[in-house]
Amino acid sequence: MRYLPKSPADRTEMLEAIGVSSIEALFETIPAEYRLKGDLNIPRQHSESEVLDRFRAFAGNVASGDVAVLASQPASKQYASFLGAGAYRHYRPVVIDSLVQRGEFLTSYTPYQPEIAQGTLQAMFEFQTMICELTGMEIANASMYDGSTGAAEAVMMAVRVTGRNGAVVARTVHPEYREVLHTATQHQGIPATEVGYVTETGRVDLAALDAAITDDTACVLIQSPNFFGTIEDVTAIAEIAHKKGALLIVSIAEAVSLGIVKAPVEADIVSLEAQSFGVAVGFGGPYCGVIACKEKFLRQMPGRLVGETKDKNGKRGFVLTLSTREQHIRREKATSNICTNQALVALMTTIFLTVYGKQGLRELAEQNIAKAAYLRDTLTKAGAKPLFTGPSFNEFAINLPESAETANTKLLGKQIIGGLALAKWYPELGDKATLWCATELTTKVQIDAAAAVI
Prior knowledge:
single chain
């Protein structure tokens, strides 16, 4: 018989259906002396991740709970990692792979005739719905390649919407996102002006931003949490952009932040990298980009949009409402040359969000904040110095007592991957500046070990 877990709300509903006020009332016909009054004499239940750790320990013939459990894992998992910067390690519920590997989903088929692919379309529709709930936008497409191409597509979309021909981009946007944007716009005659950040807070310089926006600026592109991990003042930036007739695009590289950080509802377009939602960190991909926006910009949105309708019998059904790519319509009318959507990867995201739910996602975000706060405090006690004072989520920039290269070499010797050196993209910060990240998978033991090396 299958085990079907019940939530407290499920149990309450079941008790109400049979007219009983509580579990205790349900069993009150059993004489008191025969009722169990304490806990069963068995070990406490384990979480899914703990169960997996136990099996890895058995496979490596090491004691359960022993730090040596790491030795039984693949080489890539033997190392503690504090890297983030757009690719984040989060726990993936095992149900994700169990479902996405079903034949109905794991197929190379592209639904050009969508009426015969209702399951695929429903998955896309649910994905779009959850993205809208998370971002505060009115519509979302059925995914893009990744966050970097999504940001570039959002800028080109803003140019089409406004009829203007320039972009103002914060230097706090992921440097590689900015490189992809340059690649996409350089031959289209779309100039991009970069504005710096305030050295104290790590947030975009609002005065410089205001001065950079002209009558020909189509949009302002920011990232929040930004590349330094700092949360931008989206409301203030939106006021500056809208006052001058420009659209605001908010790029989000760490999707889990939406579990607790206020959604960027003031934005006109949101470009999201949803890799954190159940997509494993691989060797460069795959990723899961998304564009969400206000409904009035619907016809300029790249990619696919799935809609809900009813058939002639009144049954719920799904249709490909909008597909603005060249494979579906005349090339000169296409808004984008994005040739596919990441449907299977988007399905992973959908399953992840369904498993966690609203409260679960918030608790996950709270864990990330707590782990990052402990990491920051521990590194500070070890002699490091935080670079910025702005609010952050699970990532932060910090100056180490020695160069990032020297520190990371020492850390690697202890099977620890340290923070990302920032001098490559931000030489003004110096060679000691690094970007550190902690997620729910980061342990206290790993943090203390890294601090000991530093």
